[in-house]
Amino acid sequence: MTTTTVTLEFGTAARERHALDWARIDRLRELALAFANDPDPTERGWAVMRAYDEYAAHPAPIRRARAVAAALESKTLVLDEGDLIAGRLRRGIAAHPGIWEGYRWANAVAYPDLIRNPAAIEEAPVAPEYAAFLREWSSRHTTPAQAIVALRPDETRRAMDHRLFGAWGLDMVHRLPRFQLLLHEGVVGLRARILEQMRALDNTQPGDIERRCQYEALLIICEALVSFSERWAAHLEELASRERDSARKDELIEMARICRRVPAQPATTFNEALQCIMLALCANEAETSGSAHSLGRLDQYLYPYYEADIAAGRQTGGEALERILCLWLKCYRTFDFHHTTLGGLTPEGKDGTNALSYLCLEAVAHLRTPRDVAVRVHRDTPRAFLRLAADVARLGLGRPDFWSDEITIESLTRSGFPIEDARDYAPIGCVELTIPGKCNSRTMGHEINLTKVLEVTLNGGHCQITGERIGLEQEAAFESYAALHAAYRCQARHTIDMAMAEDARHYGIQSRELPFPLLSLLTEGCIDSGRDVMNGGAIYSPAGVNLFGIANAADSLLAIRRAVYEEKRLTLEELRRALTSDFEGRAALRQQLLTHYPKWGNDDEAVDAIAAKEAAFYCDTIRSYRTPEGGPCLPLIFGCTPASVRNFGPKTGASADGRRCGAALATSVNPTHGRELSGITAELRSVARIDYRKASGGVSFIVDLHPTAVDGDAGLEKLVDLLRGFFDLGGMEIGLNVLRADQLRQAQREPERYGHLMVRVFGFSAPFNSLDAALQEAVIAKTKHET
Prior knowledge:
Elements: H1 12-17, H2 22-33, H3 42-54, H4 60-74, H5 105-110, H6 118-123, H7 128-140, H8 144-151, H9 154-161, E1 165-167, H10 179-199, H11 206-242, H12 246-261, H13 270-287, H14 298-312, H15 317-334, E2 340-343, H16 355-367, E3 373-377, H17 383-393, E4 401-404, H18 405-414, H19 419-422, E5 426-428, E6 432-434, E7 446-449, H20 450-458, H21 481-513, H22 517-521, H23 526-529, E8 543-548, H24 550-566, H25 572-580, H26 587-595, H27 605-623, E9 633-637, H28 641-648, H29 680-687, E10 698-699, E11 702-705, H30 712-729, E12 733-738, H31 741-749, E13 758-760, E14 765-767, H32 773-782
Parallel strand pairs: 2-3, 3-4, 7-8, 8-9, 9-10, 11-12
Antiparallel strand pairs: 1-7, 4-12, 5-6, 13-14
Helix pairs in contact: 2-15, 3-4, 4-11, 4-13, 8-21, 10-11, 11-12, 13-14, 13-15, 14-16, 15-16, 16-17, 17-30, 20-21, 20-24, 24-27
């Protein structure tokens, strides 16, 4: 593929380089930031509740397909003035605790088939008749999430209530369809394949009867997709008939022509391909409330259309950028992830960086709105592209995040993926890894709280805060560190066993009660197998499972080993009493634990070795399991900030690293905030000591930099070298927050002036002022590394 270079300028100079209607983009950006012309979130709720009632006697795949079709049919068609892409996504919210923009109720009223939240229903500003119908309907229907709770054993419930682990394999539907199936074959091609498979079925065999039901559901989805695009075409033609501006009339007529073609037929131009993707995103939203609809390797699968248009004179780079900007603004409106991957190796092992890779990054810089973008880096990545990506990161948007192809690809091949597919990986959701359009969507089955595991070990299987037994009951008098560590490992295995069993219950309910016919249509393997994507239909059926709190656990294990067993400063019982009392009357001991013993993130080999070994232990243990469909379990080292601040931290007692009871835990592979005191290079060296070739589910590492550390051309070159150096050391992923604490404090004092100041929270970026007070303080506490 061809590559290009760009002048690293943003703002007026960059705009002058591109011949496009910047006034149009400015108007659309203003509307997007204001969430103007939002559709009614109850539209989907009305449609799917009625569809579920009408098709109650039908099998689950048919019922779900009819609900998706009804949701698309009921969707109000809204086009902003000047928009170049048809389709409007329902306004969503970041579905993580701590994010609040007064719109959380919308998920409860839009997705009653998936979410039952009576409190949100009561608070929702919806018509009384809708609330009454929703309340009555909910009393007659059990959601899959409710079915899971009913099957949960008491020991598992207690462990989850105390945040020893969390399990949400049912809820975390992080979707990345294979858009190429629609782009290359169109609905007409997919429908022909389905009918061919149906003709080969023996209608007397139970397995074939089940497959026929699945194929009928896929055909319903095919019809719904075409009907939806035809509705848009008719709407655009009506708008064109009333349009007085000749140039805009021509645009609307062309948009209508495109909607008449895609997704029914294969796309033939860049504009057709973008429109096809947008309509598919709308259908995705109609099927699920999963808050992580991703776009994958957009620059790779759109580049042939872009290249052909440029060669034929149908498109200029500026016109292509204009449409990418329109797409980005539509994605912003949902406040969803829509994770987009740029650059990296092709399946054939060549550099895939192309002109679209640059344009997509430029679009992020121009809009300055949250855009979850991942940049894949390998040894032959052009320095110009890496410079541009680093320059965009300096804007303070928390994006892009950077991935090492060498480490990530090897991690996936070690988990059994062929090299060609491993090279085609993309992060979805926050940082979870998948093979686009070839896997199911189970990327976060559970989350083990490693710090809580150590707490339970020290207390013989009991919670330090409540005294309730939540883990494996053990003898807690450890005569040696080796004995304690062996018990800790035993407790960790027991916790993993509980979590994996809970995951399996989730998967069983989901495969029976919550099929995804649309996602199955757009996932390779499902048409050939005649099975749903969540029931073994995809080519691969992996499950990502998650580790949390590794920094606190490693720092605590080192402190216990040295203070109790090597230096004998206190007995284990004395330490246990201090932790149980949250260091009441033991302030000196707490300070000693905080400051006297090394902490991970400072390039100290002793504590770094513990963190690396515990991460390897978790990854190796997880890799010994298989999914119910026989797929691999992919270890994921990732803990999100909201969960740390609001869920896991408050339920975790004081720990031997000096952390107070209820305080936030370190997230993902980040060192504990305030304990990484030796500079950025020391922090990178510590984090890189984990063997990420074992972490095939993904990883998150966020570095917080002061703008002065990367200012000017010299600072940019230093940042590029820093990224290269981290990957050379063995790092897998890194994200950057380039922020000043005083700027964030000013945003707290004058929120109206900083309404769209963006920060990287964990796997997503968000407006700083959309965070609650606790999360704002957590972000401010991390700003550091001024030089």
